[in-house]
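Hi V.,

You were right to ask for the full record rather than a summary. Here it is.
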Amino acid sequence: MKPVTPLLAAALVAAPQLASAEPLAPMPLTYEVFEQAIPHIDLETCPTEIAGDDRFCRAVVHHDAFHVFAFLYDADSPAVAYRSYSTEALNTILK
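Predicted structure:
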């Protein structure tokens, strides 16, 4: 049996929403979906501009950038912020 790829996992999550005849509404990205579908790095702290006591951050390395997602500790841990940083700016986010 082949492993589920991130793209297939995202498509399966979106399928019920896309099959609806109702107008499409934004789908929240929860940490549960993110964790299973997207290879990522756990960050000990969030970058300053998206940091908060109520959240945790994960990073994705894609092309020449780090993409940082902030999730709330509460409820279903929805994504509440997102920032991208050039790999050339690593010193900025690792301080």
